[in-house]
Amino acid sequence: MLKEYRTILPLAAKYRWWYAGGLLCLLLTDAGQLVIPLIIRSVVDSLSAGRGSLQEISREILVMLLIAVAIALGRVGWRLFIHGASRRIEYRLRDRIFRHVMTLSSKFYGDYRIGDLMARFTNDMQAIRMAVGMAVVAFVDGIFITLAVLVILFSRYPRIAWMVILPLPVVTFLVIGAGKLLGDRFKKVQEGFSSLSEWVQESLSGIRVIKSFARESWSGDRFRKLNQEYRRRNMNLIKIWGLLFPMVTFLSGLSTLLLLYIGGMGVMKGSLTVGDFTAMLSYLQMLIWPMLGAGFTVNFLQRGAASLGRINGILREEPEIKNIEEPLKRKPKGGLRGENITFTYPGANRPALKDVSFNLEAGAVFGIIGKVGSGKSTFIRLLPRLLELQEGKLEIDGRDIRQYDLKTLRSVFGIVPQRSFLFSVSIRDNLAYGRRHAQDDELKRYADRSTISRDFSRFPEGWNTQVGEKGVSLSGGQKQRLAISRALAVQPDIFIFDDALSAVDAETEEQIIRSFLESRKGRTMIIVSNRVSTLREADHIIVLDDGHIVQQGTHLELIAREGFYRDIYRLQGSTPKGNGGGSREGK
User: Among 531, 553, 557, 571, which is least packed, fewest CB within 10 Å?
Assistant: First the structure.
């Protein structure tokens, strides 16, 4: 269990002075609590003997009042310092995890569900915070109070003390024995919460699909089953926890009964004063908290260890794609060359790309076409190292792409993917995602290029309209055009359309393409599409089939030869425009 806490130790060391201040306040609080029964004993003995004056009693009460104020201040202090440290550790650990997952490749997100990750960022982090906060308080408080009370009892009342505390060690063994069961069951509770979160996240994200297929009842039934399983796992945990505390209370009550009997006999025989009996009763009541505190400590530590195990599982994941030592930070210009590129997805029986070779000069327009599953998107994802090349060579400006710093390499590309993802912020903020400090007039120019600007007047608040989660309030064509403008705003040297015009009409498509060709200022352009009308202006086109290049050439060359490209050309009823690769403005 404790080995999981190695992740926390550097963070705890960073806030060691916070813990030191909190523990000092805690010990001063405990010391004040230990003094009060002694004052009560003195007052009770004075009153029972009839020798206490009002002035003396008032002085004792004033001292108790001052101690009570000091105890209250001490409690504020340890809460401020220790809970403050635990909150800061939680913040830093959550920040570390988030930054770490940002470096991980797509394989990681295939292995871990989003709902599970969300549970680790929330419930598990809360359990860790309690383990480095309240568990520390319960442990130190319990040890100090137990030792201090035992020293006082055995030094003053040795004959009675050993008899009245007999049931209390049983409590400790009971708590320790329950610890393993608590840890295992809490881990299952967290896993159940992950499954529940995953289903809720999927259902809410896919609510349109659920409604369109009228599957609300089925989705609700699935949620109910997961919710019932989560409740069952919680009940299994509560059964142990619910049994533990009544047992602790019962055994603590036995100690009080023993004191009432043995101490009461001592008072009647005169071997024990009423003040001593009252003080012993107070100290014995103090011993109940450490016993309960031991339960809290074990429970918090077990829960924290289970949650840290889940967190450490993420932190142990190594990014598959990372920089070499001393990578190049010089920004490349855009010439691309590939030789015998082969890539196979993990677990796949056949490669997605096989022996693909190409040569793309900086400033050229490169077209890619092929059937569904032919490897087009895989090809695109290899270029900025979103996937790692397995076999062959892939160079940019004559250097292997792995020699470049990842951030520098990816800053060269502006990619508009097949499925346009938008953040749940305003249209304007989505436009400026890649350039947070871009001026409004500049952003509007890029909006004009994709023609999304003509739709601004249709939105309730213009381009300040919130688009909803994943752009739910926009049509498919609007999302694609907004994604195009977003990619343009970063001013990339290599612009990639990955079937990014599939949701727009032919007229808008032609307007967008023409605008790009006229204003691209020598930038390299890669267009993936199954529309021949989109590809006809490309300098060079490759046709992919089952991961292989089966045809390549200009638009006019390909329509003159038998093959997939000409079949698609005839099917779509296209007519050649331009010269299929002649000079254009900005080429």
Answer: 571
Burial classification of residue 461, based on how many CB atoms lie within 10 Å of its CB (0-12 exposed, 13-18 middle, 19 or more buried): exposed
Cα separation, 195 vs 108, in Å, equals: 17
Band of residue 179 on the pLDDT scale cut at 50, 70, 90: low
H helical segments located in 157-215: 158-164, 168-205, 207-212
Question: What does the alpha-carbon distance between residue 30 and residue 82 come to, in Å, rounded to a whole number?
Answer: 16
550 in Cβ contact with 353 (< 8 Å): no
Identify the H or E element spanning 461. Answer: none
- CATH number of the domain bearing residue 561: 3.40.50.300
Token pair for residue 270?
């005169």
Q: Sheet harboring 540-545: ordered strands across?
A: 413-416, 494-498, 524-528, 365-370, 540-545, 548-553
Distance CA 376, CA 354 (A): 12
Please indicate, yes or no, whether residues 406 and 429 belong to a single structural domain of this protein: no
Rounded CA separation 421/503 (Å): 14
284's tokens: 């014995």
**Residue holding tokens 């919130």?**
466
What are the CA-CA distances from residue 172 to residues 175, 338, 486 (Å)?
5, 68, 62
CATH label of the domain that carries residue 47: 1.20.1560.10
Same domain as 304, residue 334: no
The two beta strands, 391-396 and 336-343, are antiparallel
- Give 453-489 pLDDT, tens digit per residue: 888 888 888 888 888 777 777 777 888 888 888 888 8
8 Å CB contact between 390 and 320: no
Q: What are phi and psi of 183, to 5 degrees?
A: -65, -45
Written as one letter, the residue type at 446 is Y
Distance of CA 191 to the CA centre of its chain: 15
Please give the residue range of the domain that contains residue 27. 2-315
SS3 state at 392 = strand
Closest CA to 393 of 357, 361, 352: 357
Amino acid code (one letter) for 182: L
Tokens of 124: 């598990």
Q: Of 370, 396, 372, which is closest to residue 382 (Cα–Cα)?
A: 396
Query: Nearest CA to 482 among 433, 531, 523?
Result: 433
User: If you search the block for the tokens 């953040």, which residue do you land on?
Assistant: 423
| pLDDT one-digit tens code per residue, 375-427 | 888 898 899 888 888 889 999 988 899 999 988 888 888 888 878 788 878 88
Which pTM value belongs to this model? 0.75
Q: Does the residue 78 lie in any domain?
A: yes
Whether 495 and 488 have beta carbons less than 8 Å apart is answered as: yes
Is there a contact between 409 and 396 (Cβ–Cβ < 8 Å)? yes
Number of separate helices (H) and strands (E) present in the chain? 22, 10
Q: Which structure tokens are listed for 91?
A: 């913040």
Q: 404 to each of 342, 360, 463, 490, 562, how far by Cα in Å?
A: 20, 18, 37, 19, 40
Other C-beta atoms within 10 Å of 171: how many?
25
Count of CA atoms in the C-beta half-sphere (13 A) of 124: 28
